Amino acid sequence: MSTTETSASGVGPVEGASLYSVDNPAPVIEPPRKRTKKTPKSTRGNFELAAWLFMRLSGVVLVVLVIGHLLIQLVLDGGVSKIGFAFVAGRWASPFWQVWDLAMLWLAMLHGANGLRTVINDYAERPNTRLWLKGLLYTATVFTILLGTLVIFTFDPNIR
Amino acid sequence: MPAGTLYRGREGMWSWVAHRVTGVLIFFFLFVHVLDTALVRVSPQAYDDVVATYKTPIVALLEYGLVAAILFHALNGLRVIAVDFWIKGARYQKQMLWTVVAVWIVLMLGAIYPVLGHAARELFGS
Lengths: 160, 126
Ligand code: HEM
Ligand code: HEM
What we know:
The complex is a heterodimer.
Chain A: H1 47-75, H2 85-91, H3 95-123, H4 127-154
Helix pairs in contact in A: 1-3, 3-4
Chain B: H1 11-37, H2 44-54, H3 57-85, H4 93-124
Helix pairs in contact in B: 1-3, 3-4
């Protein structure tokens, strides 16, 4: 068995003595995540951070909006039994409740959709499944937000 | 998802599972709810017909379940926010979870009469 050539390791035959010197520099190993000309200025986008923060901020506001809504619809003034077209007409006659419902619609839909995005990312492993599930989710979300907004703004108490 | 695992977490894992399940359920409810509310643009008749189903005893039970889901998700959501933003949040996460469960039970007991009362009157007579 011949003596093992250790020149590639950088540690010389005499322990501790470097093989490299100013005249014989070590080979440059490119760092795996080195920035190149094509790398964007910041490789760390802030979308996930913004989404994380949005879940918490919208959550705090939704506590008030949704629990208030449930109290009005299910508990106060006779509970569900009172709900009907006339009841809704009375509520949406006030800009206050229009704005309340509008904020609740947007915040709850965006909060829920972003939450579902996380759930899809967690469980759908095949890229194609993810693509389709997210496409379906975003379509349903945009549709629901637009429909709900339209309904609040175009509500007509005198419809037939 | 990996098929079958022996890993069983503690309270923290189960509260996370419950938070996720309730969140998804509420989202699906909201989707249907915006559709049924949109019937006010069709006709008062159409809206009142659909809302009538909301007043039946079986749906009253579903409403009680919805209230349970929302209250848990809301209370536990506040706990998650406290764990993230309060310096001592992580240290007290377990105590906060049991507080969430206690408040949830009290609120659910309080909701029985308002949410289910009309169904009981319908089933068992005035
Ligand atoms: C079973 C329980 C519920 C009942 C009986 C109920 C009832 C109603 C009624 C009568 C309206 C018409 C407008 C108004 O009166 O404000 C409405 C609108 C609305 N509700 Fe609920 N609600 C319930 C649960 C929820 C929950 C849990 C959420 C949120 C997660 C929610 C979100 C909304 C939104 C966003 C609107 C506006 C819809 C639109 O823009 O067309 N509701 N609800
Ligand atoms: C009532 C007030 C609410 C509060 C305080 C709240 C709070 C939160 C928080 C803090 C998270 C993030 C959890 C994490 O990052 O681990 C979250 C996740 C989520 N929320 Fe809410 N939320 C509320 C209402 C809603 C509503 C109305 C919906 C449905 C439309 C919803 C659906 C979801 C979903 C699907 C997730 C993702 C769950 C997961 O990733 O495991 N939440 N919520």
